[in-house]
Amino acid sequence: MSGKAVRRQRRARDSAPDGTGSGRSYEELYVEYAPAARGLALSMVPPDVADDIVAEAFARVLAAIRTGGGPDHAFRAYLLAAVRNLASDWMAARRRMTVIGDMDDQRR
C-alpha cells in the first residue's frame, strides 16, 4: 500500500464519525444534518419514503467513511447528494413499476 493510501486511511479512521477518532460522533452528525436531509427527501418523495431514504443515506455515508472514502470535509453536501441520488433512484424504480389490475376484475 502506498504512503498516500496509508495516510488517507489513517485520516479517515481518525476523523470517522464512529467514536474511534477525534472526529464528531455519528449521533452529533445525525442530530445536526437529519432535518436538512429529511427536508430534501420530502421535497422529492412521499413522506412515508423520506425517512427510509434519509436513514439509508446516513448508513451509506458512514460506510463510505469507515472504508476510507466519503467526505474529508463538507459532510452536509455529501449527505444531501446521497439523499438526492437515493430519491432519484426510488423515483426511477417507481416509474418502471407496472401496475396490473386484479385478475378477478378482468374475468367479470
Would you give an account of this structure?
This protein is mainly α and 108 residues long. It is 73% helix and 0% strand. The chain has one domain (3-98): Rna Polymerase Sigma Factor, Chain: A (Orthogonal Bundle). Mean pLDDT is 80; it is low at 12-16 and 18-22.
- What average pLDDT do the residues reach? 80
Put simply, the count of helices is 5
N-C termini distance? 69 Å
List the domain count as a whole number. 1
CATH superfamily: RNA polymerase sigma factor, region 2, helix turn helix motif
* CATH topology value: Rna Polymerase Sigma Factor, Chain: A
Give the overall form: elongated
The quaternary organization reads as: single chain
- Please write the string of helix (H) and strand (E) elements: HHHHH
Number of strands: 0
Q: Give me the Rg, rounded.
A: 19 Å
Write the CATH architecture name: Orthogonal Bundle
Q: Structural class, from helix and strand content? A: mainly alpha
Give the CATH level 1 class: Mainly Alpha
Sheet-strand content, in percent, reads: under 5%
The level of helicity is over 70%
pLDDT < 50 stretches: 12-16, 18-22
Main sheet makeup: none
SSE topology sketch:
Elements: H1 3-15, H2 26-44, H3 47-66, H4 75-96, H5 103-107
In short:
The chain has one domain: RNA polymerase sigma factor, region 2, helix turn helix motif (Rna Polymerase Sigma Factor, Chain: A), CATH 1.10.1740. It has 5 helices and no strands. The protein has helices spanning 3-15, 26-44, 47-66, 75-96, 103-107.
